[in-house]
User: What shape does this take?
Amino acid sequence: MDTNKVKYTDETLNLRSFYLRFLKKIWILPIAALIGAILAGGIYYLVTVTFGPERRYEAQARFHLTYSDDAYIRNAEGERVLDWYNGATWTNFIFNDHDFLLELVKNLKEEGVDISQERMKVLEAAGGPDISNQLQALEEVGVDVIKDESKINVKGDIISNERFLLVTINETDKKLVEKLTDAFIKSLESYPTYNESKAFESIVCMSKSDVYLEKADNRMGVAIVFGAILAVVLAFFAVLLLDAVDEAVYVPEDCEKRYGCPVLGTVFAGNEVSDLLRGELAGLYDKYAADKENLLFISSDATDDASFSEKDLESVKKSLGSEYDNKLSKVKAISASEIGAADGAILAVPYGKKNAAMTEHLISQLKKIECPVLGIIFTRADLKFIKRYYGIK
Assistant: This one.
């Protein structure tokens, strides 16, 4: 009878049963998505705003450049081309020119900026050359430059063509950005007068922006969406994992595979009845148990109290109808502690009850006293679920 028995710890997950039951828990996914979105958004806010780097301010100035003949060179083809033409040239060379830095510091002092009090460090934009020599030169002329303080980023970009230069100044102090921008404009406009290369005839500031808060790279939306998706995926796999280790049975076929005993039929919770399944129960009961005189009926969760067995037996009687009253009068509902010799026993295994180990124990005990297990009746089942599983309308 138990040649096809499969231990419940080694069972393959019944995916149809799982998905049908998962539909009842589908509400978990939007709740998980909401929680994941809130957590991810909160973490992103804490990392980038609450405990993130200090916000920086920016200002921009646009310049018109008039080049001298000295700014042009001959390329390999012999063509006359402009040498000082791109943003990298300005950012990495001209803005770090020794004479330009000295002029900038002088104009900063005129703007009322005390270099030492502001604890300012004049640095090139990221990727520029080392300017330790320029800093040393500033110190030699009496400028106290603190070398371990926050960066002032200055970047030049050539916009549209080589005659127009956009300078962006970035720092954490709003007032300092404004003063530095004014000093930078003065220093750059006078650059043609003290620059040794004589590459420019004139540099004129066309416009200056107000100081504004640097636009942050706000990825809050991405963080929220990522958190929601991750939470949904984790919630689904958590439900899948819990179901994989769930020892309860939800359909008769799984019960039959697990315990190696024929399932005689299915009865439902309350007064629900399925005509199709009622007919199956009647036919199999007649085949396996109707000719026995002394039968035991044991529910797998009726360990010390026979009340569960009595209720399940009553459900069987209601399902089979009054014509089976005489046959079922030979059946006695007992608890597990009352097991004794009989012509046979019928086990009642409840739908969704996590007591596989106890059920196996009952089968083992009945075999030891040579009381044959005639079959299993699947009790307290969910009629809607069973109909969906079998596709019954």
The chain has 15 helices and 13 strands. Confidence is low (pLDDT under 50) at residues 117-135, 141-150. The first strand starts at residue 57 and ends at 67. Residues 57-213 form one domain.
